[in-house]
Amino acid sequence: MASLGRGAPPKPRQGHFFEPSAQGAPPPPRADHCCVALGAHVVVHGGNSAHGPLDDLYVLDASPRARPWRWERVHASGEVAPARFGHSLVRLTDTSALLFGGADDNEYRWYNDSYTLHFDFGATGGAPGAATHCLSVAAQPAGGGGASALLPTPRCGHSLSLLPSSPRALLLFGGSNTRGALNDLWAFDPDALRWSQAAGVDGAPPPPRAFHASAVVGRTLVVVGGRNGYEYLRDAYTLHAGVTGGGRWTRVAWSAAGEPFPALAYHHLVTLPGGRLLVFGGFGADGTTPLHAAIDLEASRATWRRGEDMPRARSNHSAVLVHGAGEGGGGGGASGGASGGLTVLVFGGFDGHDFCSHLVGVRFSMAAPGAAGGAGGSSSLLGAGVSVGGTPLRAERPGSAGSRRDSFGSGGGLGGGLGLSLIHI
Q1: Angle at 372 between CA 367 and CA 373, to 5 degrees
Q2: pTM exceeds 0.90 for this model
Q3: Where are the alpha helices (DSSP H) in 158-284?
Q4: Considering the chain, what is the average pLDDT of its residues?
């Protein structure tokens, strides 16, 4: 398939969905893969498929020079990670990332290994290159002195989130293995290549869970939902990490008004500048129904709105924020007139029936503080059609008759759409 779009899709208004036009060989359908944005390049690795776990590596060039955007399969040199799903891939620099964990149920193996991936995206638009290396990471002794060194236990369905400010650290939370769901917290030092179990953390931690969603705002880790065995969870927690270590877990109380927040897992969070989050998709408590909702989260309280029909529902997908994406994908990119523009790309997943290789984007612009659209003095969140303070979040399905638009409202069912949800912290 030469293109994931239907020709050249029209440029959507800011904050509306579009189907990017991408040439090359896209990744085959998959779910529970991992994905990371390195600058304007999006890296996809592994996952599960109809034929079992995967070990392949793909790069989407969404930079301004790519007209249209282009998929390339990359055959990395060095030590290649075995096939796996439910693992994590986190940005270290604009040309490198860290891969951790995952599972291969065909081999009945769970992993706690770490790999660095280094990319050469080329200055002239040539095919990207990559090299991978299995790390011999140093483990921080559990009690100091002569205590034996510890590493996180093997797991999949965990979250691994980067605290970007100094000192840098990657926070590993939860997941599951043959013993069940986990709720332990670990920190990885990307400079010293060292794991340590988090110490000095106050408050009651979230109950054990896997396939939850997490994201970082400043030095605060946000954890939403997940599952523990057959139980799907509806709770949310924050962990504010101290600069010198430690921190405190706080459970977020959902507002008592209206319908209770649904239990969900296999969804995805994306952090936007300004401390806001988007949550996409997921499965509901019955484990079969793709779900979407809009959430407003402030301090230790949260309210939510159920979303109406939106483009193609999915779970077990990936969603990443891409800075400086070009307009070659048809989304009105960096040179498309949106100052400070951002693009969120959602790839793959499971739609309740089949594995997906569908790519969907939504283009945003960050409004200046004090711009119209927010409530109670808040600034507009993302330009036209998207704002905080109760204003509906709007989305458009390009290529459909009449450019049909759908939005979040106070009611509506699950429909068949991809869920774009809003969290405001």
Answers
A1: 90
A2: no
A3: none
A4: 73
